[in-house]
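writing this on my phone so excuse typos. first protein, seq and then structure
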Amino acid sequence: MAALVDRALTHLSALVACDTQNPPRRTTDSGIVEYLRENLPGFRIKFEDLGDGCQNILAVRGNPRILFNFHVDTVPASESWSSDPFELVVEEGRAIGLGACDIKGASACMLAAAEVTDGDLALLFSTDEEAGSSRCVRTFVESEEFERFEAVIVAEPTEARAVVEHRGIATCTGEFRGVAGHASKRRALTDSAVHRASRWAAAALSAAEEFENRTYRSLSGIRFNLGVFDGGIKPNIIAPDATVRFGCRPLPDQHGPDLLAELQALADADHVEWTPGFYGPTLPAIGDASKARQLAEELGLEIGEAVDFWTEASLFSEAGVPAIVFGP
């Protein structure tokens, strides 16, 4: 086992050294595609460039029924790093580097495992999970290659527990309209786009607080967040426009579009235009989690609680196959 861990750390050091920050979506320039190709001998490799920094690397050996999925892009490095984020540091039993946990560590472990085994295995490495588009997975589930698989394991940090249920995610932008004029007029109270947006925001926050009483297993509420609030010209001018961008994370038994519609209805439809943003279904997206639980049990994995975060496992579930989330 020690030799396998050492080999995994060698792979992890090389993967962390590849700058796959997203943005700026320059994964193909990082060297990671070449590294994966070189370290998966005996695999059939298919590379697909979808544009805009979105690439899929599918590696298949034999005739596997389960697909393992890993995203190799990372969030941008914070200026608060006390060491080089692209140089792996191992100390006190911890491996530290940009993306080490989310989720290059899982990729490194699988590369090490693939070297000492010869069984059927399918690995899909994608490069746009952190971009908020999921073009890689959405495209792959529509391909002929996907049809061969009966189940998917998506690598995300779960503390080595199989997650079979998680929240969905939905974002939206509201463009509020007002009637410009001088702020000395009484109608500023009702005609300001900023005031209209503020009233909706207050109502939406109140609704989110009420949703805290709704629970699903260990989860509660809808995780509502006002991310952007902008508008107006200056204090003595009635604001002609205002923009609000918000997100929410429905519980596993809620439908994201229905929740968005409920929140949008808190505003006067004549004063706002809503534009949907990113949407990801809950896990499972179709039916219940019984098949995913069965898969986890067959593999001898400890099943964890439902989690607050969203993953692309729900996109595989939406495509009709059992999906679980499992990682460091």
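second protein below, same order as before
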Amino acid sequence: MSAPDEDAVQLARAQLEAVVEDIRAVDGNAELVAEPGFADVVAAARHRPIVYLAAAESGGLALVVRDGAVSELDLPGLRAGALREKVDELGRWRAAFDRADAESADAAWRRWSAELDQVTGWLWDVAMGPLIDDVRPAGESFALVPCGLLGVLPLHAAWTPDEGLPAGRRYAADLAVWTYTANARALSACFAAATDVDMVGSVVVADPEATGPMRLPAMRTLGDVVKATFPAGPAPLFGADATPEAFRCLPPAELVFLGCHGKADPAAPLRSRIELTGGMVTLDEVLRLRLPARLAIAAACDTAAVGLDLPDEVVSLATGLVQAGAAAVIASMWECDELATAVVLVEFFRLSAERPPAVALRDAQRLVRDSTLRELRQRWEKALDEGAAWLPERAGDALLNRLLEVHDERPWSGVEVWAALSYTGA
């Protein structure tokens, strides 16, 4: 996919504005997606400091809103032209992977992964490294508002070499909890939704009998883990029961788990979809639903992905779930390995009993990234021996059997694996 020229950007901006107007027309969404004023930004930053990141032709800029004040940080290396080139190269290799047959898919995926690794190293040098030096986060949580094409990149996975750490690198995620938000008003709405005491239990929709993509047995196993951790709520919707009709009738819940295939449509974001048994639910439909949840987990490919040709990256399935009522959403930024996603989320469920969800996801990703296969197996086997509530026997046995397919010593250390999931909202 080539970088957009000026005419294409203007056309894309007009298309984006039309999409935003469509979203504003949905009952309950007018205030959520309205452009926030400075007072809205300061109010939202009381919940979590906000960092606006933007690239420009002459160099980038970070605006940090914290403790009622705004500080500015010049980022001379964050040039829009270089950013376009990086995103263009990633898009080219992702398109090659999408077109590849079975024989060439692995090579295309490795090349895309190598490009992603290079880009995240560059992101440290030009953006996240200087930002971290400036804010000295010391474990704080920050809400990132990535402007333009920065919205397609995993800023939390920016890295710099550090031979003293297991991966030989220090990542932005090691120094702070980085969440994402479309804007300040959306962040405030998310924190307000997080205080809803009527949301209890869990709703699970997983492993649908979709016609095109492969089945997702590890997502069904994760559904069992969810119900063990959040037992209240209706019975899980697996296989033939995971239909669009059932999705449209989901009740409010503390946790909504969607273990399904997803597909982003960058050219028409409202047609981005979750694929289910017998059909699909589009982002346009999601925006017209009310789906209150403390946390929605969309463990599917491309659920947080946004378009490469749009100048403002604020429309995705993840932000759609926020606008439907979820206080926070965990979603995938790119097509990801089902087992790797399951490994991260099992650790997330274990840690979430004692940590806020954004912190639990960050810590789970770091733990999985730095764990050896043997260490992970030993941790799960011990949990089964002790009858740990967070890992029911059937799910634990199924996951441990799947791990027999893995042979690398540190199988999840790559950015393309551990960093795929992002956290949007409160």
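The chain has 14 helices and 16 strands. thats all i got for now
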